[in-house]
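Lecture notes, unit on protein representations.

Consider one protein chain, 83 amino acids long.
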Amino acid sequence: MTIELDKDTEAYLIASIKRFFAEEMDDDIGDLKAMRVLDFCIREVAPSVYNQAIADAQSFIQERAGDMGAVRYEAEFDFWKKR
């Protein structure tokens, strides 16, 4: 799976990485190094985060689907019973 970011998101993340290095690591890096860090994160870290997000969503949906039995019941053929 290849993750492709739109240009605005990529530009924001590159700026954020540069700021992180400057403020947290006391190291100024340029756009090229920031792009390499972003590429590393997308290739190495993002698939694990993506997979966990999918597993969490799947679990959430399965839990909600399991609850459907309790909420789906509606009495049938009760028009004449209520009169």
